Amino acid sequence: MSDGRLTWRFPRTFWIANGIELFERAAWYGTFITLRTYLLRVVGLDDVQAGYLAAFVSASIYLFPFVTGAVADRVGFRTSLSVAFLLLTAGYASLGAFHQLGPVLVGLLLIVIGGAMVKPIISGTASRYSDAANRARAFSLFYMVVNIGSFTGKTIAAPVRISMGVDKVPYYSAAGAAIALLIVLLFYRPKEGGEERPRSVRETFAGMAAALGNLRFLGLILITAGFWAIQGQLYASMPDYVIRMAGETYKPEWYANVNPFIVVLCVVGITHLMRSWPPARSITVAMALIPISALIMALSAWIHHPVMLFGAAIHPITFMMVIGIALMGFAECFLSPRYLEFASKQAPPGREGLYLGYSNMNTFFAWLFGFIFAGYMLKAFCPDPKSLPPDVQAQHTAWLAGHAPIPAAYAHAHYLWYAFAIVGAVSFVLMLVYAGWTARADARRREASAAA
């Protein structure tokens, strides 16, 4: 711990915790990017069923930490983290070993509980092992490690899926979780306890009810959920869309990596350039850009030949996906750094900390909606080939090889992206209304205070 001076030097436990986080994120994103495909091909669900189950898994990861964080405060970080990685290792391994729906549901539940236990513990460790002067640097390092883990997990998942099968990806994730468990058992020795009294589960839910009961705060969460519902399509619909529209050898896992790459590359510069902007304006720019990214992804339907770039022929799906995902990352740079600042301003005076604790509930709502909606859109416009008659399946295979016209079932696949562009456009309009309403309400409050 520093003595209040700016530094990049942190205690050993801080760096160990970040190493643990890297393996956990690599494990999670390796399986998560292929989860829908796994549920379809290995478990035998249809698009809508896979959408509902993936929605539960992805949304719960953002809801359960409020409970598991309270538990970790009471039983200790090291014990909680050991249990978490035991659950994660068992959960991922069970997905690889058992392919019937019942065992898969158990495995996914273990992954949800284990992942939800890890999330607040690692961020809590970063907080405990940094002081007020260096907390921003500590969390910037933590955020960088999260992105490295995300990038690594998705990068490795692609060749595993292509060469060994999507059912083998969970084994890779189980190995990552097992390595993290070994690091916890051998090296992780955090100081336990702190100045604050541990929270109870009842207090946690009471705080959530208080925060989400504020219509101003809830409105911001639901409006910005429209942004994350589109960004979440990197996992909800994009992987199956690319494989069905381009072929098995294409790597949507790698396309998704464009997003964190752009964020890491641009977020500091954009935040600096926009530092004088009100946070509502920066967020509104992000909300304006996100539906455009969905429209760009749809444009591949209008390009009928490979795109030549630096002498290489690139599939239209690849070309437009990368551009659209890059714009998503660029939009995120406007939203993420300023969102917490704006969210805190929606809280009553003195309750900013409580509200910030629940500000990421927008991702819970976004992924709950986004995965379910994606399941219906895929089934309607870009269905699983195995759900179609044999002659249509044969035509689809021949079309991917360039030997047949596109089957009618896939002629409007890009409508999926139009649907999400509409979601983004509605969210943008609502954000304009919300920003104007809150600005006027704040002005009236200031006038009332001045008059008093």
Please, could you describe this protein's structure?
The protein is mainly alpha-helical and about 450 residues long. The chain has two domains: about 10-200, Growth Hormone, Chain: A; about 205-450, Growth Hormone, Chain: A. The chain contains 20 helices and two strands. It has helices spanning about 10-30, 35-45, 45-65, 65-75, 75-95, 100-130, 135-165, 170-185, 200-210, 215-230, 235, 240-245, 250-255, 260-275, 280-300, 315-345, 350-355, 360-380, 390-400, 415-450; strands at about 305-310, 310-315. The chain has a two-stranded antiparallel ribbon with strand order 1-2. A hairpin with a 2-residue loop joins strand 1 and strand 2 (about 310-315). The longest helix has about 35 residues, at about 415-450. It is globular, with a radius of gyration of 23 Å. The mean pLDDT is about 90.
Question: Which tags fit this structure?
Answer:
452 residues; Growth Hormone, Chain: A; two-stranded antiparallel ribbon; mainly alpha; 1% strand; 2 domains; 2 strands; 20 helices
Task: Give the SSE map.
Elements: H1 12-32, H2 35-43, H3 47-63, H4 65-75, H5 77-97, H6 101-128, H7 135-164, H8 169-187, H9 201-212, H10 215-231, H11 233-236, H12 238-245, H13 252-256, H14 258-273, H15 279-298, E1 307-309, E2 312-314, H16 316-344, H17 352-357, H18 361-381, H19 390-400, H20 415-451
Antiparallel strand pairs: 1-2
Helix pairs in contact: 1-6, 1-7, 1-8, 2-3, 3-6, 3-18, 4-5, 4-6, 5-6, 5-8, 10-15, 10-18, 10-20, 14-16, 15-16, 15-20
